[in-house]
Every structure is written in C-alpha cells, then in structure tokens.
Amino acid sequence: MSDTPEDLRRRATRLRRGVGQLGVLESIIDAAEGPWLGAMDADGRGAAELRMHLAGHYRLHVVVTSAGKLSLVHVNTLAQGAAGERIFSNKMALRRGWDEKETMPKQPQWLHYVVTWVKAVSSEVDRPAVLAWMLAGADRNLAAVEDVIENLRASLAEQEQLRDERAAEVAGLQAELETLTAEQNNSPQIHAPQTEARPVDTPPIDAPAADTPQTDTPPIDAPAADTPQIDSAPTEAQQIDSAPTEEPQIIAPQVYSTSDR
C-alpha cells in the first residue's frame, strides 16, 4: 500500500467501474486527508477492494460491489481489545466489535460511518506522528539491510579461508612436482642396448620352399616317361563287340508237284 489519495483517484477512474461504485470509492478517498497510503484492486466478479492506512496507526478495508454497495467494512484503531477493531458484514460470523450497547448500523448507513471515521482519524495524526512512523519503518529496513550485509561478510570470510587452503594445497603440489622433475633431469640416463629385429623370409604359400627339392610329377592322363608301356589284351566283352556279325539266311520253302509223287 503505497499509493497516495491522488493516485487512488486516478486508479479508480481507470478501472471504469459503474457510476454507483465509483461514487462510493471517491467519497471515501476524498475524506482521507493527510499522509494516507493505500492500494486498490478488483476481483473477477466486478467488486472493487480498497485498502488504506494512516501512518500505520489506522487501517481501513472496504469492498464495494458492482452495484455500488458496501459488502464489507473493516476498520482498525489504536484502541486495545474489541473496541480497536470493527467489521461490518452481512454474515453474522464475520461481524466483530459490536455488542448490545453499540449495535452495528444498517447497510445503508455504512458509507456514512466510513466517511465520518476517516475524517475523524485524519485530524488525530499530526506531522510528528507521521515522521515517527516513517522513522520506525526506515529503521526496520536499515536493520534488515545490515543483517544481509553481515551474512554476506560471514560468507565471504568463509570463502576466503577456503581459498587460502586451496592455494596452499596447489603450492605444495607444484613444489613437489618441480622437485621430482629436477631430480629426473639431473640423474644419469642408462640406455639399454637395442637389438634390431631381422625380417623373417617366409615363402609364399603356393610356391615351394627354397630348400625343398622339386620333383617333376607327370600328369595324371599322360604316362610317365620312365614307365614302360604295356599293350593290354582285349577283354572278352571287347572281342564280342569287335567280332563281325553274320546276317541270318532265309531258306525258301520247297514246292513239290503231283507228278513227283
């Protein structure tokens, strides 16, 4: 809640509410004199919600329907107990601050009560009271900022200590590495004799080895050069096939005449 009464008037105009609703809001805002601060909001049902406070001493919360009627009024004063808080509502469970001696006004009278209350409390708060309230708020903000700074300083000191530990570790490892490197460079190097590997001549798989005697093997179909040729006699089956075949002789039948008988 940081809007001044003038800011609240412009905001109420930009909301483009109904004539009745806008008139109720402007009546309450115009009655606020002095260092009032507040905020305005609207819900999805068309109702407007106005919250105001006067230097943190007095607080006001009203809800105005789209028809221009007050559905809720909540005022807080400096008085202790039930007298310091009063709630106007159509619901019995929400009402507060009323008793048999002082009953809650009827709904048509709620706007008149709110306007009168705002004007009355505006004159009770003077400039020194406003400055005292502003000083208290600024003091709380300063204390919060100082707490944040102290936490940041503690965190920074912890990180610096961690950095020093890491730097010492890096320096120790670097010194050890330089010492080992210097020792290796100063020590004589002993080179072991290197034997050259001779290539091994491996004969190809298809060619015969160089030391293996080569033998001339005759082909399978041709007879060997040193093997004597033997004329094999024809077999019985071959003789039968080669023998000339004789053609069968046809004998003519003999004819006898009757005279020979």
* Separation, N- and C-terminal Cα atoms: 174 Å
Rg calculated over all Cα atoms = 64 Å
The 3D shape can be described as: elongated
Sheet of most strands: 5 strands, antiparallel
Q: Which structural category do the helix and sheet elements fall into?
A: alpha+beta
How many β-strands, per DSSP?
5
* Strand line-up of the largest beta sheet: 1-2-3-4-5
Count of helical stretches: 5
| Weakly predicted, low-confidence segments | none
The overall pLDDT, averaged over residues, is 77
What proportion strand?
5-15%
Give the % helix: 25-40%
Q: Write the H/E string, N to C.
A: HHEEEEEHHH
How would you briefly describe this protein structure?
The protein is built from five helices and five strands. It is of the alpha+beta class and 261 residues long. Among the domains are: 5-125, no CATH class; 126-177.
Characterization of this structure:
This protein is of the alpha+beta class. Among the domains are: 121 residues, no CATH class; 52 residues. It is built from 5 helices and 5 strands. It has a 5-stranded antiparallel β-sheet, with helices on one face. A hairpin with a 5-residue loop joins strand 3 and strand 4. Helix 1 runs antiparallel to helix 2 and helix 2 runs parallel beside helix 3. The longest helix has 60 residues. It is elongated.
